[in-house]
Amino acid sequence: SGGVVTLTYTVTNACGTASTTVSINVAVAGTITGSTSVCRGATTALSQPATGGTWSSNNNTIATVSSTGVVTGVAAGTTTISYIVVSSCGTTIKTAPMTVIAAPTAGTITGASTLVRLTSITLTDAVSGGAWSSSNAAVATVNSGTGVVFGVAAGSATITYAVSNSCGTATATKVLTVTSSRDGGAAPVNSNEPQPEVSIYPNPASAVVHIATGVKVNVMVMNSTGRIVVDQKEAMDIDLSGFADGMYLVAVYDATTGSLLKTAKLMKIQ
Q1: Contacts of residue 212, Cβ cutoff 8 Å, sequence gap at least 6
Q2: CA–CA dist 20, 69 (Å, integer)
Q3: Nearest Cα to 140, choosing from 260, 250, 226, 219?
Q4: 8 A C-beta contact, residue 98 and residue 58
Q5: For 139-150, how does the pLDDT look when each residue is reduced to its tens digit (9 = 90+)?
Q6: pTM, rounded to two decimals
């Protein structure tokens, strides 16, 4: 280890003992301490118990280091920071890895900008590892991991995809419009026009479910995650025999106008 070393030379004969001493300052580099990572464009300070040494980086395109041990991140990647001490007794070098982390990017959200109430769509982003959220869950919900959006009510909501790391958070957004009919119109479910009566039976059901009404209808069935499992045009019966037991949401639309006629929770049993 470094420090001051005292050397003594002693000579002895019949007449006595004589000695002489000399002190030598042995400079030795110690262990580098501090963070082993830094954000691109940011700085972090390293420290070293030995004095009089020189700091260096083996790749200044990744990170630079000042004479006082302050590291600046230049580009994403890994480099090695060295501290070199030279003395009359030789040269000692201590090293430490340094990883430069780039701030995250959120990419661009792709997918439809509209969906019909009580249906779902899937949004995607080329950047992985992010989380999805909705600004208005009363209009549209989104699965935080998959990007599956479910339309709850007519209106608009902003869907956000956020990607985070130790250097911050980046977001991408998409405004989504939920309509209340298949043709994209905003006609409410409870309009002033008389609506045909719709019966959905049996409920609970183990296999075939009947749709009884006086008009041609299209039927959608969503599972508990909002995924569409049945999308059937001009349906009178739907077969659920191949689906797992549990609660489903049935939406019945007028096949001609696209208006939503009825929604109902349906229990699938064995």
Answers
A1: 198, 199, 200, 201
A2: 40
A3: 226
A4: no
A5: 888 888 889 888
A6: 0.59
